[in-house]
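Ops channel
N.P.: pipeline sanity check, posting one input/output pair.
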């Protein structure tokens, strides 16, 4: 595994773990965010300087592959580096979360520089020059391919959940922070699992990718439409989620790959029985 950058210590807070005492998927996303912000700070562009410049980076796309689950109390750290910076506007960053028992998760993030209006803009050359570029030969992370195996016929069934965004969930730039989108997808899956009489914490993350379209603001209601696409070669469910306002505004599109820890068929919950 190619690794660049200096190690960044991480800590998994107590509230970040499920009843199985392992990190939820969105909490791993928050560790990735901590690592990216810490690395940016080390390059001289921490949150205070970015705020003073009335500018920021926002995530446009992120793909995460989970190699194993992280346990509460495990010593964790990250390595992260910038793989490219295009037109002084779009940059891709690689992040690796490691632990005492080996690698935990890998991520490729695509960040977009925005100005005070929160619209894409060209970053100052001085900022771009402060971030070293590592042209890694490792390809960007991707969600595992699905296999439309026997028994997936009828997988067009869709579940539909409506979730309200709390007033107090806003991030420093005034909208829903990107790991929350994974929380919304996870809640939709958890509701489906619970409706089948299973424990939601029995769902294990394999991978996910989210493409962000429009910020979610306080008080909005997000419709999460979840559809089964199929299964991977090892039987994990591949799900597609569209997060919208119930009409024409799409907030994000996501793919999650999930399995049940007991080896049960998670995908079957979305297959019509009639």
């Amino acid at each position: 595994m190619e690794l660049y950058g200096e190690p960044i210590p991480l800590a998994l807070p107590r509230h970040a773990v499920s009843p199985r005492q392992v990190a939820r998927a969105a909490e791993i996303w928050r560790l990735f965010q901590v690592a990216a912000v810490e690395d940016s700070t080390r390059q001289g562009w921490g949150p205070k300087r970015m705020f003073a410049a009335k500018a920021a980076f926002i995530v446009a796309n992120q793909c995460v592959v989970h190699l194993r689950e992280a346990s509460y109390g495990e010593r964790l750290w990250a390595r992260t580096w910038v793989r490219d910076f295009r037109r002084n506007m779009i940059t891709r960053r690689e992040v690796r979360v490691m632990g005492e028992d080996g690698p935990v998760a890998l991520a490729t993030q695509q960040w977009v520089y925005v100005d005070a209006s929160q619209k894409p803009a060209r970053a100052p050359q001085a900022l771009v020059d402060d971030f070293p570029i590592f042209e890694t030969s490792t390809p960007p992370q991707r969600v595992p391919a699905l296999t439309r195996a026997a028994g997936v016929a009828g997988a067009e069934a869709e579940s539909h959940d409506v979730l309200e965004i709390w007033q107090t969930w806003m991030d420093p730039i005034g909208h829903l922070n990107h790991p929350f989108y994974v929380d919304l997808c996870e809640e939709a899956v958890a509701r489906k699992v619970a409706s089948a009489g299973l424990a939601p914490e029995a769902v294990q993350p394999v991978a996910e990718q989210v493409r962000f379209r429009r910020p979610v603001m306080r008080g909005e209601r997000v419709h999460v439409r979840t559809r089964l696409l199929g299964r991977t070669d090892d039987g994990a469910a591949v799900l597609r989620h569209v997060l919208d306002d119930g009409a024409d505004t799409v907030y994000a599109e996501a793919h999650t790959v999930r399995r049940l820890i007991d080896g049960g068929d998670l995908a079957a919950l979305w297959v019509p029985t009639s």
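N.P.: looks fine end to end. The domain at 8-129 is CATH 3.10.129.10 (Thiol Ester Dehydrase; Chain A).
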